[in-house]
Amino acid sequence: MNNTIKFVLDDNIAEIDFSKEKDLKPTTTVLNYLRSLGNHKGVKEGCAEGDCGACTVVIAEPGQNGNLNYKSVDSCLLFLPMIHGKQLITVENLSQRKNGNIILHPVQEMMVNSFGSQCGYCTPGFIMSLFALYKNHSKTTREIIEDSLSGNLCRCTGYQSILEAATEACKKNGEDHFSDNKEKTLELLRKISINKTAIMIDTEKQTYFRPLTLDDALMLKKDYSNAVLINGATDIALKQTKKNELLTEIIDLSGVDELKIYDAVDKGFYFGAGMSLENLKAICEKEFPALYNILKLFGSLQIRNLATIGGNVGSASPIGDTLPMLFAYKAKVIVQSSKNKREIDIEDFIKGYRKTDLKSDEIITSVFIPKPEKNVYVKSYKVSKRKDLDISTVSLACRLILEKDNIKEILLAYGGMAETTKRAKKTEDYLLGKEWSRKTIEEAMKIVYDEFKPISDARSSEEFRKIISKNLLMKMFIEILK
């Protein structure tokens, strides 16, 4: 193990030795690191919680067929060791200087031509999201563009001019000086990866581990049972950025490739706990369309590029977007320690408000989702104050089997109605065996209205949540009736 990280920045290998850099700690965010440099002030802090996109940067790493994969991420949520072995790209890297002249990158040029910037505070973040879009999509649609920009907020210009800039820029097929320098960048990344070792950063107040294998991660969790586990850190990072908590022991699983794979078997799919939600979304569109529809509304692209399925399950949040869906799909959570392995039904895994059945020496390694039978209806709904980049007010995932117009099986999993994701058992009991009709659903709506006692908070009142819970039942009925 070593306490040094390396990454590519400004076409050179940057190295940080935490034993020497007293102003930096292992949980220093990439945002704050860049702001400490003299020539990377373009990245801005707007919210420090991944909600505005002003801090967006792009991370590139080797992919298949000798190419580089480009991903937009929120640098306010990214700890420095998480970019080890990757290329860090900021807005300052996009333009070029030739013969004394500044040549703008195509996305910058189009932003200027479409008058897409006004006060300019959010512009670098938009530019970086546009750059990632430019590198990943030579043929775009309005839906793809809006998804790429959903994590960036602008309060001056409005979005139409920025959408126009994206449409025009992406006609150039992703070619730019990054394409020309691809081999050089790959060679720099290869130099870093030659001596691929685990990282241990031990400072006066923090100990940070970044293992490379699952076995090593399990041994670390055994020896450091109180250590906080992170992978994408989109949730845990908020403890530092918003609550000013000191994370004294951290085990970073983002370097464990074994946790990022998935395995298709006859009965379903095992998704590695370290798989990003964006990768999960791409894989599950055909087999699990209801989950796909929820993931389309999960945070933003920057968040989904970091957040993982294991992290979302492990947080046990009562408003976690994936949990109701995993209830409806009857998923199982696979956990491991250095000694054994357990497979737990998702409903049994969630024990209380942000509490799970995970033991102190265990790690979530994968999530198994069975293939639903052909006669099973699975639906997902999310209600929030805005469509994109918002936390659920109430969510509902439904599982339904009909037999001769009677309800043979029904599962109704609600988020945001209790301290955990919870099934509406009384409503399910009433519906079971009943005729699938509007009259039946209207009676069920009365039951579900009184089944939960949700709280009132900044997102909604108790009464509003109760009304939503019953109206979503009717929405499900109408959709399936069609």
Overall number of structural domains:
3
- The percent range for strand residues is 15-25%
The CATH class name of the largest domain reads Alpha Beta
Number of helices: 18
Fraction of residues in helix: 25-40%
Summing up helix and strand content along with how strands pair, one would put the structural category as alpha+beta
Compute the separation of the termini in Å: 59 Å
Write structural notes for this entry:
The protein is built from 18 helices and 22 strands. The protein is an alpha+beta fold. The strands form six sheets. It has a five-stranded mixed β-sheet with strand order 2-1-5-3-4. Strands 12-13-18-14-15 form a five-stranded antiparallel β-sheet. Strand 14 (332-336) and strand 15 form a beta hairpin. Helix 16 (425-431) packs antiparallel against helix 17 (438-451). The longest helix is centred in the last third of the chain and has 20 residues, at 462-481. The chain is globular and about 75 Å long. The model has no long low-confidence stretch (mean pLDDT 95).
Care to give the gist of this entry?
This protein is α+β, with helices and mostly antiparallel strands. Helix content is 33%, strand content 23%.
Q: Main attributes?
A:
globular, DNA polymerase, domain 1, 482 residues, 5-stranded mixed β-sheet, Uridine Diphospho-n-acetylenolpyruvylglucosamine Reductase, domain 3, Ubiquitin-like (UB roll), alpha+beta, 18 helices
Q: Can you lay out the helices and strands and say which pair or pack?
A:
Blueprint: E1 4-9, E2 12-17, H1 30-36, E3 56-62, E4 68-74, E5 87-89, E6 96-98, E7 101-103, H2 106-113, H3 123-136, H4 142-149, H5 160-169, H6 177-180, H7 182-194, E8 199-202, E9 207-210, H8 214-223, E10 228-230, H9 237-241, E11 249-252, E12 262-265, E13 268-272, H10 277-284, H11 289-295, H12 301-304, H13 309-315, H14 322-328, E14 332-336, E15 341-345, H15 346-349, E16 350-352, E17 355-356, E18 363-370, E19 376-383, E20 394-403, E21 406-415, E22 422-423, H16 425-431, H17 438-451, H18 462-481
Parallel strand pairs: 1-5, 9-11, 10-11
Antiparallel strand pairs: 1-2, 3-4, 3-5, 6-7, 8-9, 12-13, 13-18, 14-15, 14-18, 16-17, 19-20, 20-21, 21-22
